Amino acid sequence: MATFLYKLGRLAFRRRHFVALVWVALLTLAGVGAASAPPAGSTSFSIPGTEAQKAFDLLEQRYPGMSADGATARVVFKAPDGGKMTDKANKATVRETVKELRSGSEVASVADPYAGHAVSKDGSVAYASVKYKVSGMELEDSAKDALKDAAQDARDSGLTVEIGGDALTATPETGSSEVIGIAIAAVVLVITFGSLLAAGFPLLTAIIGVGIGVSTISALASALDLGSTTSILASMIGLAVGIDYALFIVSRYRAELAEGREREDAAGRAVGTAGSAVVFAGLTVVIALVGLSVVNIPMLTKMGVSAAGTVAVAVLIALTLIPALLGYAGRRIKPAGEKSRLLGGDRTPKKPGRPNMGTRWASFVVRRPVAVLLLGVIGLGAAAIPAASLELGLPDDGSQPVSTTQRRAYDLLSEGFGPGFNGPLMVVVDAKDSDHPKTAFTKVGDEIKGLKDVVTVTPATPNKTGDTATITVIPDSKPSSATTEDLVHAIRDKGADITSATDAKVLVTGSTAMNIDVSQKLNDALLPYLALVVGLAFLLLIVVFRSILVPLKAALGFLLSVTAALGAVVAVFQWGWLSGLMNVEETGPVMSMMPIFMVGVVFGLAMDYEVFLVTRMREAFVHGERPQQAVVTGFKHGARVVTAAAVIMMAVFSGFIGSSEAMVKMIGFGLAVAVLFDAFVVRMAIVPAVLSLLGKRAWWLPKWLDRVLPNVDVEGDGLRTDADRRDPDGEKELVRA
To answer: Could you tell me the pTM of the whole model?
Structure first.
């Protein structure tokens, strides 16, 4: 592989005009496609195989035109202090609002609070339920504006009015902090390279790659039903790895220049060596992201595949566009150790020959491997302690910031009708195979009334054919509580008994039941997903490092860092530690998809640093250095750039903490902390300590396996022979990089 990539790097360097033209054409094509594509349609959230989804599908069949997945809104009214919603003036205001709401073309129905008994017992709160024909993501802005205007008209009359439900679903915004993250990345690159031009290349290529990836997602959003979060995830991952991959190749190019190589040859060698690490690091990220499809949640699958596509683009750009840009830059890119004049390149180094920080740190770890190993493991173990109390759930209006109308509507409904009113359960009774459907409907209602934590059970509402009915159940506890989850399971258990007695099937659905089913599905998929992703990457790393213990150590280190990162997420988003600093207005359960998502993404990113750092060590080892010295050499050449890459990735991920979307905020924080733990504790401390303790045993591989495995030549041994043949001066000694 190194030889092929070496030739590719030289070709891109020579044919830079063609390579640049191809990437500009691809960016233009993707941009035109995104601009001309129809707007994205409904972002369906289906969970195949769950009881809640089966109930939704059944409602679509048995209640034509019901729009079970249509957007809903609850316009909540509260009377001024001392007044009641049953007062004549307040009644007139509410009915005028209901009339105004019904005028929308996308409105399916509006329930009058006074006709539907939607007034609290003390008369202080009432609500009107609005049902739309389309989902929240499909709802036109004009319909949302009409909803807000109707509420504002009621406020002008003296009532407190708030709007809950998913009708006001908005595209999440990342805020200005994302730009701050990119700015921090730029500063780190300038410090690392000592050159504005060299620092600009990784940023430029990463932006081009993300532009192509996100534009392609936008162009295909309507056809493939891609959600708004999909492009945010792709930009988050694509920007981080795009900068890192380009950073490694530019850094290696400057190192080759420092050894006196011609620029074209240096570009080829940078792509042949660092590019090999980029390919395999990218493969681990792609495996982890595409592996999310095993969970069988379409939304998660689309997010993973889209982000994986953006990562693949980042790899291709690093291998081709970076050497092309290096060709354009010419002598303006300085060899390693030299700075541009603008950044003090004419100054004389203060202490020539002094070992760099990476060398000094690695030498310290090699001298005291046991102490460093114990300190790292104990530290990560302490950070992981909060993960033991991890509570999973999906966000509802109760997790919104208190500044939003959705959250205020949630609180008003809890105040007037009880906390369980915000999470009603819909029980669907399928009596198609029953001889006495009406008896079955009645029996289901009676059985549910006898369960704990039940406040209200509405009478069964049959469909036109009389073979299916819906029953609404109001729990006594809030939607995200364990008590409500127990109630859902209790109803389902009763349903099994009813089925055996009446041949009628009982299904529980609604947003609360759907959230419970999603959490359970994700929990069940976590171990199989972990085994699949870690197993495939383990095999890949055996090929890369030609070792058994090094990939095993890499996987165990990942488990430490991801568990510690989950502990940090629990501490901030569930316990509320530093919540003010992170702008977390409401703590609660961690989103149920967070563990499996972090496992996938963090594993891919963790293997990035493993590949970049340890391939340098193996390169030194196979070229004759002792194991401990190879560790020091690997850090000498790789620690600075890996540190820069980790800081950049942390900055990019931290930028998403400013998002208005709770899921994006949590993902950004979790990934930033995971990179901190994995890069600086696991890869920079635990890995060299373990390799130092293992010595030559770290690179042991059974002879039979050595014969079977393909030789991918990540160390670039094939380049030694190629270079010898091309060297006109007969120089045979190559750098032990």
So the answer is: 0.77
